[in-house]
Amino acid sequence: MSLYSEKVMDHFRNPRNVGIIENPDGVGEVGNAKCGDIMKMYIKVEDGILTDVKFETFGCGSAIASSSMATEMIKGKPLKEALLLTNKAVTEALGGLPAYKLHCSVLAEEAVQAAVRDYYVKHNIPYDEKDFPALDHEHDAEGHGEGEQ
Ligand code: FES
Questions:
Q1: What's the number of domains the chain is made of?
Q2: Is the CB of 104 under 6 A from ligand 1?
Q3: What angle do CA 37, 44, 126 make, to 5 degrees?
Q4: pTM
Q5: Residue 144 domain-assigned?
């Protein structure tokens, strides 16, 4: 039996929503310091709905599959709902990941939250840090986020 589920292989081989959005409303870039993988998520927002989501992932197959699945799960959804997306939900939707690959799905959760927070910052929309639990630890590590204008 393969180490990866069919869903993981499918999203790795045929990732959905890959690329860049020109003039995005928000961009989130996150990375994992240990493996060095980087994920960038672009969003378009209209009336509080994520009308488009795209990603670029410079990383492993699980990270690519996770970002692909995450974009599918949040596209067309209200921002508030996208913020509730957990790495657990992404992993489950992928039919599971090996334990040592779970951190790859965490990147997807972080990237979504970072993109939404960037949208709030750029549009001067007040927000609560508590709505971004996945970004709690990123402040000094990423050098990206609320300070940027
Ligand atoms: Fe680092 Fe997958 S090994 S994101």
A1: 1
A2: yes
A3: 90
A4: 0.90
A5: no
**CATH number, domain at 54?**
3.90.1010.10
Please indicate whether residue 35, judged by its CB atom, sits closer than 6 Å to ligand 1.
Answer: yes
User: In this predicted structure, what is the pLDDT of residue 147?
Assistant: 42
List alpha helices for 14-136, DSSP H: 61-74, 79-82, 87-93, 102-122
Tens digit of pLDDT for each residue in 20-47?
A: 999 999 999 999 999 999 999 999 999 9
- The residue nearest atom 2 of ligand 1, judged by CA position, is 104
What digits encode the pLDDT tens for the residues 43-68? 999 999 999 999 999 999 999 999 99
Domain that includes residue 86, residue range:
6-124
Q: How far apart are the two ends of the chain, measured CA to CA in Å?
A: 49
For the purposes of burial, counting CB atoms within 10 Å of the CB of 39, is it exposed (0-12), middle (13-18) or buried (19 or more)?
buried
Residue 33 structure tokens: 């310091």
Which strands sit side by side in the sheet containing 49-58, from one edge to the other? 26-31, 38-46, 49-58
d(CA 147, CA 33): 21
63 lines ligand 1 (CB under 6 A): yes
* Ligand 1 atom having least distance to the Cα of 61: 2
